[in-house]
Amino acid sequence: MSERVSASSVWKKWLSKVRKTPKKFTRIPRSELDEELCAAALECSPRVYKYIPGDLRTDAVKETAASQWYHLVREDPERLDSVPGSLMGRVAEKLVTDSVDFFEMFPESAKTRELTLLAVRNGVSLRFVPERHLSAELIRIAVEAWPLNLEFVPGEYKTPQMCARAVEHDGACLAFVPESFITRELCLSAVTGVGGALASVPVKFRDREICLTAVKNDVPLGRAWKSVPECLRDGEMCLEAIRQNSSAIEIVPKEQRVPEMCLKFLAVNGLALESIPKKLRSAAYCTAAVKSNAYALDYVPEELRTRELCLLAIDGARCGDSLLRCVPKKLRDGELCRRFVEKDGTALAEVPGKYRSEVLCALALRQVARREGRHEHYSQAHQLSGVLDAIPHPLAEKLVRAILPPENTEDVAILRDFIRYEERLAGMGNDRKQKNRIAIVKLLKDIVGNSRVTA
């Protein structure tokens, strides 16, 4: 095409006009039209396809048109109605390959056997498959691709083998298995994968093993417990429920909520302390809870948050920032703050100003700057920003120069993300914080620009 463009000024002129106003394609003399000009015009607007003479609608031109319509429909699905019928098959194939959600939008005439098979292999719901295409082979493929398709399989096509495979991959499929196919082994398989499938287990199969297995795998909690016969809701069953979800203590029978059992509950899931009345939260309860889960410290009455209990929490925590917030201010001395910052540098924001020494600030920044210091719930840019906001500005610049120069390509990528993050925040906050942030961004850009490491 480049040779043609350079050789024909007329060709260039028409293409320029079409780019500005696609409708002008209809004014191009037939003698000037060729496959290359048609393809170029389609890149300007796929709507010109209907004006292209039949002899110029080659496979290449059709493919260009289909690609352009694909992008238009991806941006605005309502444009699907405007796709020329002769291109619908090509466009539909591209859309289904990208996302099966488009399949239900296609007109029935466009749902050919080939397109339907492609959609089914990609996990489309059988609800949207035309009845004329249903066959044992297509249904088998559909259920293997998405087991919950079992719900829409006509009864005559269901077999014990098909149902067993579906349940094995997703226990929720038990709800769609004919009763005559259900065995105890199938029920056990279902609740092993999805505890909530216990609701679909026939009452005659709800024995202790199946119910206990269901409760162990009941995430999120609720559905399986409701289906456990009351006669089986003993201490062991309650203990498993609480192990999975701390709020389960609220549905534990009152006769099981005796002090000895509550201690056992807290030993398997300390966060259950939240559901125990405050007047019952004794020192023994709180210690058992924090030993089990450090973040139970948040539910310990403040008068029971001793230094020893806080140290117990930080030793068992994954990170320290949110926990230091739970420590009474009167206990936040230099040593305790150092322990929290060693665990997670973002805890620096909760450290009293008098303890934010250069050594502690450097420790915090180094913690979040390296991989082992990252908090699993936040981006590293977010963490770095929080730490630097907690460091007095002159010291922040000094530590950035000393600690943040990149050592490898990953460090460069992290700093670039951090720069973009800080630039977005530069217009927020008070004037002093904004000025400090701009200065840090400039410094970081210099560090990255002068680094010998490139990403």
SS elements, strand count? 0
Mean pLDDT level = 86
Structural class: mainly alpha
Beta-strand share of residues: under 5%
Order of secondary-structure elements: HHHHHHHHHHHHHHHHHHHHHH
State the helical fraction. 40-55%
Poorly predicted regions = 1-7
Largest pleated sheet: none
Silhouette: flat
**What's the tally of helices?**
22
User: Could you give the distance between the termini?
Assistant: 36 Å
Please write out the topology:
Blueprint lengths: L1 H6 L1 H12 L14 H10 L14 H17 L9 H14 L14 H9 L14 H10 L14 H10 L14 H10 L14 H9 L6 H4 L8 H10 L14 H10 L14 H10 L14 H10 L4 H4 L9 H10 L14 H12 L10 H10 L3 H11 L5 H17 L5 H20 L5
Helix pairs in contact: 2-3, 3-4, 4-5, 8-9, 9-10, 10-12, 12-13, 13-14, 14-15, 15-17, 17-18, 18-19, 18-20, 19-21, 20-22, 21-22
Descriptive overview:
The protein is an all-alpha fold and 455 residues long. It has 22 helices and no strands. α2 (9-20) runs parallel beside α3 (35-44) and α12 (235-244) runs parallel beside α13. The protein is flat.
Describe the structure concisely for a colleague.
This protein has 455 residues and is mostly helical. Helices cover 52% and strands 0% of the residues.
Task: Please name the defining characteristics of this protein.
22 helices; 455 residues; mainly alpha; single chain
